[in-house]
Amino acid sequence: MSKTFDTLVRVRYAETDKMGVVYYGNYYIYFEIGRVEYMRNLGIDYRRMEIDDDSMIVVAESKCRYRRPARYDDLLRIRTRMIEVKRRTIHFGYEILHDESGELLASGETIHVVCGSNGKPKALPEKYRTILENTVATSSST
Amino acid sequence: MSKTFDTLVRVRYAETDKMGVVYYGNYYIYFEIGRVEYMRNLGIDYRRMEIDDDSMIVVAESKCRYRRPARYDDLLRIRTRMIEVKRRTIHFGYEILHDESGELLASGETIHVVCGSNGKPKALPEKYRTILENTVATSSST
Amino acid sequence: MSKTFDTLVRVRYAETDKMGVVYYGNYYIYFEIGRVEYMRNLGIDYRRMEIDDDSMIVVAESKCRYRRPARYDDLLRIRTRMIEVKRRTIHFGYEILHDESGELLASGETIHVVCGSNGKPKALPEKYRTILENTVATSSST
Amino acid sequence: MSKTFDTLVRVRYAETDKMGVVYYGNYYIYFEIGRVEYMRNLGIDYRRMEIDDDSMIVVAESKCRYRRPARYDDLLRIRTRMIEVKRRTIHFGYEILHDESGELLASGETIHVVCGSNGKPKALPEKYRTILENTVATSSST
């Protein structure tokens, strides 16, 4: 089973800055798209997770390393993987690739805490945890 | 009494695009800042208006005419005026000026419908209406 | 020949605001996507138009009428049409539809002036004008 | 001499998301404001640095740790410090505080590489390096 999930996005004019490249904060929007589509691909509708299970995945930490600039109209491949799932936390990893050339443009991670709409941490509902745990990327292989 | 209210904002790097100027959609963010500060100046805390009076001013129409580009780090003067207040609608006007030169960079308008958190239109609470009506800009002067 | 071109976008978390709906300024980002894809569909690569022909289509006017809110994760259909092409100006029209229900959520227009990288207006290169004129929507039909 | 510099920003409606709090990627915009104002306070006009000295400070790494949510209309205090200046790199640190309560909402860092407009790394011009080195925060005190 594939341990990563790829989504394509095209760089919007609005996402560039006067340097002619994607503004550094906008990579975090791509990461968001990556993790939502990662979950959708597993049958998890994040919108429903918020409404039906009162479970939001609140970002606790984020980081990004920028290697090469993404430019206007570039087609980007967001490659998302699950690094770790714990009772109350989810840890995603991302790579942003230039789709045509395959070059790695940026990589990053986000760590999330599961919270209810009251803002308090809670356990990730079992049904989601089971699905997500099965997809955790492992560096060891046999 | 002054019929307009001025707020200053400095153009952020994030707000520019690869043309080196403020992205056209971001002027609407400046308009938002203009109307919030216009109301704050009259003693209306929009945050409290949403919470205490269950009254949101939902945008129904917006428009902007762009005359000269705003650039990174420019200090902009957002000049806001009240065009009309009706039972359920509020109509704001804006001018974006380059603060140093005084040049007019953009002008626009927004029309808002007062809604409750259920999304249904409702009358603007009397206390706000009274305050806002007193500030409606009139073209006739004596 | 179809006089409109449709593009799909999914509403991002980043595009919503605390009212739970798409922030009003972000519809202008959807309009930008609509016109870029409209042109791409006609074989016009806007990125190349900027670089190869030193022709930027600078926004001179924009407006939007909001009918129903777009929400997080909604799949939106951006329907773009060409209203008018003149020597130096291009006028686009847009409708934002909820893809699943077909409901009209917003509609708007943008008027653009063709400029060189020096910021001065110039005539739209003939090759683009010919292509775009052929797609102007006409209200009269036979 | 103070080793940090504070700037105030008010949370805009556009910066919130449907969770009712500031979208996680937007903290990086606050960081940008922090470092620009940090430099301005030292007499460095970043706009002029790009134009006059062909020196851009391109982001190579960014990270943020989110502690408590920032909400619409909150007045935030961006506290910026210089962690390290090297020949070709600049390392900033940030804290985002709730101005009224003084609570720490988020903290983060960015590492920048000095580049020319050709995109190639270059040494930070001496005049800037001298100024910035003098402000590097030191954990040891006497």
Task: Give the arrangement of secondary structure elements.
The structure is a homotetramer of 142-residue chains.
Chain A: E1 4-10, H1 27-41, H2 46-52, E2 56-66, E3 75-85, E4 89-98, E5 104-115, H3 126-133
Antiparallel strand pairs in A: 1-3, 2-5, 3-4, 4-5
Which features would summarize this protein structure in a list?
Thiol Ester Dehydrase, Chain A; alpha+beta; 5-stranded antiparallel β-sheet; 142 residues; homotetramer; 36% strand
Write a concise synopsis of the structure shown.
Chain A has three helices and five strands, in the order E-H-H-E-E-E-E-H. Chain A is of the alpha+beta class and 142 residues long. Chain A has a single domain (4-133), classed as Thiol Ester Dehydrase, Chain A (Roll), CATH 3.10.129.10.
What average pLDDT do the residues of chain A reach? 93
Radius of gyration of chain A: 16 Å
Which CATH top level class of chain A fits?
Alpha Beta
**Would you give the CATH topology of chain A?**
Thiol Ester Dehydrase, Chain A
Oligomer: homotetramer
The percent of residues in helical segments of chain A reads: 10-25%
Extended strand count of chain A: 5
Give the ordered list of helices and strands of chain A: EHHEEEEH
Instruction: Give me the number of helical elements of chain A.
Output: 3
N-C termini distance of chain A: 14 Å
CATH-derived architecture of chain A: Roll
Strand arrangement within the widest β-sheet of chain A reads 1-3-4-5-2
How many discrete domains of chain A?
1
Please report the two chains with the greatest interface, counting residues with C-beta closer than 8 angstroms to the partner's C-beta.
A-D, 20 and 20 residues
Low-confidence parts of chain A lasting 5 or more residues at pLDDT below 50?
none
| Percent of sequence in beta strands of chain A | 35-45%
Label the structural class of chain A.
alpha+beta
CATH superfamily of chain A: Hotdog Thioesterase
Largest sheet composition of chain A: 5 strands, antiparallel
Q: What shape does the CA trace of chain A take?
A: elongated
